[in-house]
Amino acid sequence: MPPFQRAVITGACGGLGQALARQLLDSGAKVALVGLNLEALQSLAKLAPERCRIYTPDVSNAAAMQAMAADFLQHWGVPDLVIANAGVAGGYETADPADLAVMRRMLEINLLGVATTFQPFLSAMQHSGQKGALVGVASVAGWRGMPGNGAYCASKAGLIAYLQSLRAELRPTRLTVHTISPGYLRTALTAGNTFAMPGLLGPDEAARDLLRGVAQGREHIVLPRRIGWLSRALSLLPARWHDRILLGQPRKPRAHQAGATPIPGLSHPHDKT
C-alpha cells in the first residue's frame, strides 16, 4: 500500500507540483490535479486516467475551491494528503503604484490560496479519524526579506506563520501540518533569474525528498537542506552586512520586464505597455 492513497495537489501543471503528481501516481495513489493549464493537466492525467481528477479553479476563489473539494470528496472520499503548492513569484518595487496590484495578487495566490486549499477538506479529514497531512509550500525567502522581492517574501513569511498556527491548532488531532521551504528549484519561476542560485535543485529530486519527509512526519522540510544551512549562516551576520550582500545581487524581474513569469489574474498598468 502506498504511503498516501488519495492526494490533492495545487499547482500541478508544472515544476514541483507536476513532479509530485507523477511520483504519487507512480506509487498507485489517486490524485486530484489542480491548476490553470488544462492541456498540461490532461497530458499528466494520461499516466493513470482512472486515478486522476482534473480541476482548474483559481486557488484564491474560495467558492471554486469548495466546489472542487466537494467533487473530490463525493467521488473518492477523504484525502490523506493535501499539498498547497500553487504559487507565483516576481520582483516588486514599492515606489511604483502599479506594483501594488502585484503584491495583492501574490498574497491572494501564495497565502490565501493555501487557506482556500485546506479549508474545504479540514472538517472531513478531522472527522474521519484517519491520519492525514496538510502540506504548505513556502520558501526560504520567507525567512528574511530580500531587496526587490518584498511581495514574494511577505507572502511566504505570512504562509510560514499561518502554517505554524494551524499546526498548533491541530496538535490534538491525527492531522499533521508540514512547512516546505525550497531554496532554488529548476522551474519556470526561476528560469528568468539572472543572479546566483546556490543549491539549485531539480523538481524530481525535490518532490522525492518532500514526499519522503512528509511520510516520515517531518514538520519542517528544507529543499535542499544545505540551502537552509547557508541561509541560517547569513542570518548570523549583522543586518547591515547582510543587506549589503543582498543589494549587490541582481533583482528578480518585475511583471513588465524580460524574464518575468506570468502572474495569473494580474491586471495592472504594466500589462498595457
What is the CATH homology-level superfamily?
NAD(P)-binding Rossmann-like Domain
What do we call the CATH topology? Answer: Rossmann fold
Radius of gyration: 18 Å
Biggest beta sheet attributes: 7 strands, parallel
The spatial strand order of the largest sheet comes to 3-2-1-4-5-6-7
| CATH architecture classification name | 3-Layer(aba) Sandwich
Which H/E pattern describes the elements?
Answer: EHEHEHEHEHEHEHH
Q: Percent of residues in helical segments?
A: 40-55%
Q: Which structural class fits the helix and strand makeup?
A: alpha/beta
Please report the total strand number as a whole number: 7
Q: Assess the beta-strand content as a share of residues.
A: 5-15%
Principal-axis shape equals: globular
Q: Can you offer a commentary on this structure?
A:
The chain has 273 residues and is α/β, with parallel strands linked by helices. The chain has one domain (6-272): Rossmann fold. The chain has eight helices and seven strands. The protein has helices spanning 15-26, 38-45, 62-76, 99-128, 150-169, 203-215, 225-235, 239-247; strands at residues 6-10, 30-34, 52-55, 81-84, 132-137, 175-182, 220-223. Helix 1 links the parallel strand 1 and strand 2. The longest helix is centred in the middle third of the chain and has 30 residues, at 99-128. The chain is globular. The mean pLDDT is 89.
